[in-house]
Amino acid sequence: MSERKPQTRAVRIQTQRTGEKEHSTPLFLTSSFTYDSAADMAAAFADDSLDVNIYTRFSNPTVDEFIEKIASLEGAEDGVATGTGMAAVFATFMTFLSKGDHIISASAVFGSTHTILTKYMPKWGIEYSYFNMSSPEKISELIRPNTKMLYVETPSNPGLDIIDIEAVSAICKKNNILLVVDNCFATPAVQQPIQFGADLVLHSATKFIDGQGRVLGGVVVGKKELIKEMYLFIRNTGPSMSPFNAWVLSKSLETLYVRMDRHAENALSLARALQDHPQISRVKYPYLESHPQYAIAKKQMSNGGGIVTFELKGGVESGRKFLDALQMLSMTNNLGDSRSIASHPASTTHSKLSEAERQEVGITPGLIRISVGLEHIDDILADIRQALDQC
Ligand SMILES: *Cc1c(COP(=O)(O)O)cnc(C)c1O
Question: Whole-structure pTM over 0.90, yes or no?
């Protein structure tokens, strides 16, 4: 039989691991596992590649189930799970970069990723260079003999900039550089970067993968030999995912496709409805024709995802008034929740950046980011419209 559709795999990938014939994935809340003999125990420790559970920092059946599902959806050979999205980013850097190496990154990356690159990398003797997402042709000029990794987020948070994964992957392959894509905003339901040549794909599973704002998690998927290196790093340094979180996330994957379809449908309706609003100077959404990289979005994403941004003409002051006037949308910094969320990056997630750095990553004073939820679009629109009337 040919491989089942991803929508089916998201629901059906499940391994019987208990002999109890349970229908739903069990939760293995155990720190360690036992052996039948001293010889078995010795063998488990002697060979890292043996498929036995030893200790939950190393592996756990509930965590394995989550990894198997997401690797399948991303079209990857294997994966590793971490306690948070940042642990996934950090473990990726630490596994593949050494003192004296160089990494090229899009300047528009998640705030904490930016902090790792600018504050910690130099301390460990790892050099970094930034390129602007609007001029990817600059990447080639930044490559040095010691360049080991190219790191991008597409769409980026919160700028919603998009990069042509296939085009940058060609540059990476030619220069023997690992291409790492943070696929958090799209999820595998919308975009599978490996299909376009990415070597490693990572996620903050905290966002759309959980989808209900309950647990933190991270995951990295890719080729077996790369994941093996990451597995050993995580097993020894400890940023492992908890089985409970893996269980929640594994359940969440069953509804990922259905949710992403509705997130995207609501987001596109919202983006269209706000386009000509008198208080707004610009609406950005990957599937709006006015998006600067609309053609690339159409090529590599199956829909525009669940995040819409817009710029309030009234700047910072209007941004604050808008948030205060909301009656239904949540004022919080998470995203990818079933509940719609509004945030103002300039005064929150990116407040530690300088004004010039914010400009560089496209965070203008009146930028509002909406994580469009699963409520009825009429109610989402009504709340946003009444709040706009008050700024
Ligand atoms: C939230 C986020 C992260 C960090 O994930 P945590 O789970 O909060 O550690 C990394 N990248 C992107 C794009 C994110 O939105």
Answer: yes
